[in-house]
Amino acid sequence: MNLNCEETYQRMQDYLDRELSAIEMALVTEHLIGCGICAEEFEFEALVLRKLGRTLLDTDIPKDLEERVLTAISNA
Ligand SMILES: [Zn+2]
Q1: Cα 28 to the chain's mean position, in Å?
Q2: How far is the CA of 49 from the centre of ligand 1 (A)?
Q3: How far apart are CA 17 and CA 1, in angstroms?
Q4: Which of 10, 15, 21, 25 is least enclosed, having the fewest CB within 10 Å?
């Protein structure tokens, strides 16, 4: 059994959260190894997840984002 791109994409979030069964983890891994498109998408998702996980601790937030947030708050 092989996953297609759509099936892989649907499982990507759970894969990153380690919420898939061992068999499904293996199937997703197998697809990512063989599919450049999904591998790239996975890289991106993993990067976003890492950034989100670090947001509260990391003070290295882009200046314009900080300003946009502050503006949004003061306009509320
Ligand atoms: Zn694919």
Answers
A1: 14
A2: 20
A3: 23
A4: 21
**CA 41–ligand 1 middle distance (angstroms):** 9
Q: How many angstroms separate the alpha carbon of residue 5 from the centre of ligand 1?
A: 4
How far apart are the CA of 28 and the centre of ligand 1, in A?
A: 9
Number of domains in the chain: 1
pTM, to two decimals: 0.65
Query: Which residues are found with C-beta within 5 Å of the ion, ligand 1?
Result: 5, 35, 38
Burial of 38-52, coded b for 16+ CB within 10 Å and e otherwise, reads beebbeeeeeeeeee
Q: Which domain holds residue 70?
A: 5-75
